[in-house]
Amino acid sequence: MNSRERHFLRVMRKLGDAEQEQLLAFADFLRSRQQPETSVVHQEPKILPAKEGETVIGAIKRLRESYAMLDAKEMLNDTSSLMSRHVMGGEAAGTVVVELELMFKRHYQRYCGALEDV
Questions:
Q1: Could you give the CA distance from residue 110 to residue 64 in angstroms, rounded to a whole number?
Q2: Where are the domains of the chain?
Q3: Are 57 and 79 spatial neighbours (Cβ–Cβ below 8 Å)?
Q4: Residue (of 6, 18, 96, 11) closest to 58 by Cα position
Q5: Are 62 and 48 in contact (CB under 8 A)?
Q6: pTM for the full model?
Q7: How many Cβ atoms from other residues are within 10 Å of residue 86's Cβ?
Q8: Cα separation of 94 and 92, whole Å?
Q9: Per-residue pLDDT tens for 4-45?
């Protein structure tokens, strides 16, 4: 991540929800004015099955391998939040694993949408 991206994220985090939506809409508008690049094909996930008695850490490793095209750094906040709910909050591993799977699917859908917008 370069200094411009870090600066953008710092500014974005200080804005309220409505202002963040406006900023994203403006960024999408600016991107729409650019010349279209060559078509990009998204990678399909290779979903690995869960193992019996899978731990939350095991599920995270499995899902990262299944969705290798996703940037783990972009999902760090969501992943650590779910991990904290399990470790600190005592939420059952099975429940957290299901939520992790849904979270990875959402990030994959965003990944596909982002490529279609290019």
A1: 16
A2: 1-32, 54-110
A3: no
A4: 96
A5: yes
A6: 0.62
A7: 20
A8: 5
A9: 888 888 988 998 988 888 888 877 777 777 766 555 567 899
